[in-house]
Amino acid sequence: xxxxxxxxxxxxxxxxxxxxxxxxxxxxxxxxxxxxxxxxxxxxxxxxxxxxxxxxxxxxxxxxxxxxxxxxxxxxxxxxxxxxxxxxxxxxxxxxxxxxxxxxxxxxxxxxxxxxxxxxxxxxxxxxxxxxxxxxxxxxxxxxxxxxxxxxxxxxxxxxxxxxxxxxxxxxxxxxxxxxxxxxxxxxxxxxxxxxxxxxxxxxxxxxxxxxxxxxxxxxxxxxxxxxxxxxxxxxxxxxxxxxxxxxxxxxxxxxxxxxxxxxxxxxxxxxxxxxxxxxxxxxxxxxxxxxxxxxxxxxxxxxxxxxxxxxxxxxxxxxxxxxxxxxxxxxxxxxxxxxxxxxxxxxxxxxxxxxxxxxxxxxxxxxxxxxxxxxxxxxxxxxxxxxxxxxxxxxxxxxxxxxxxxxxxxxxxxxxxxxxxxxxxxxxxxxxxxxxxxxxxxxxxxxxxxxxxxxxxxxxxxxxxx
Length: 467
Prior knowledge:
Strand content: 15-25%
Distance between the termini: 28 Å
Number of helices: 16
Shape: globular
């Protein structure tokens, strides 16, 4: 269970009581260092590391890191807002001991996500993990809701010996083909072993569509833990691949053409241990609240895209007829719809029914993405929204008149367009708060400016090894 209380200077008593035992267990596993990880506004995982013996100090007083990273771009240049982006100030990184884990793919190291607070002990308004925790806690308090969430992880595997900056697929063979599984067999087996040792339950690990592409699906958790798990899984994939002489990219598009890497969100609403997406009187077993939650996400998808597809390279992936979900449409098991209704196999609906949000990639900060999607869904509940007519097949086939009649709209086709939709959406901005909302806008516009004038191939190359 993820801790819901904010860290405090001096350390929370319950954490301090646990440190000695955790330190001893890490020493028994020959862990020498601990990675303290968070994800910035641009979607890049930033870290500080400490010797394992310094865990008590980190739990008590945190580890310093500048708030300037809230307005870093993926390429490490810096933009600014009225309160962020200067060289002034400091924050304290506090590890969440509930998520501390020895890294099986990196012997000698452990990993923990962090919350960031100010030197004065207050919540840092730019901390995405704190934002998500606040959204989840608010849903429980106002609506009695809990959530289960999971994030798919797709990546491409390249040869580590390829020339610097280039991508050469490490495996061959057809999409979803057995050839790829055989060629990557040893690495994949080591990956499964590492994830199991770290307590990550894996549902599937398989070759995907594009050249050198794989996907892993993991079990659902509460949203904060699910976002943590997404970061941990990527850390593990990268480390295991490197030990096999391979290089991985989670970029939305490693090249200008073809199908890119997604990071689809799976999300379901629960109350009192009951899944609200099954057993109800609305379409496909939804309860009224579950339908309103889905409708709230659907109506805000154009603005959400600035958070779920936050990079210029995201828009090389968001193309019609590639199962990326680029239209404001929903359907049961319709993989071209941006919002896919999953009812589960007969006999499993009460456990498995959920929503899949498809226009999401792994350039997204998972805490921001989940928090904003949940905020959109909660607004749908507050507004008693209902879903429009569902679609079947590919919505790209609709002409302009039929698309308009069905409410099917193309999602933003560029990052500046997505940023404009986001800036106009008061629900998402209010959920994030002014500091974090302004940081999102500034970073998105900064990323767009950084690649102005570049063709698609150069955009793909610029971000190939960033994510």
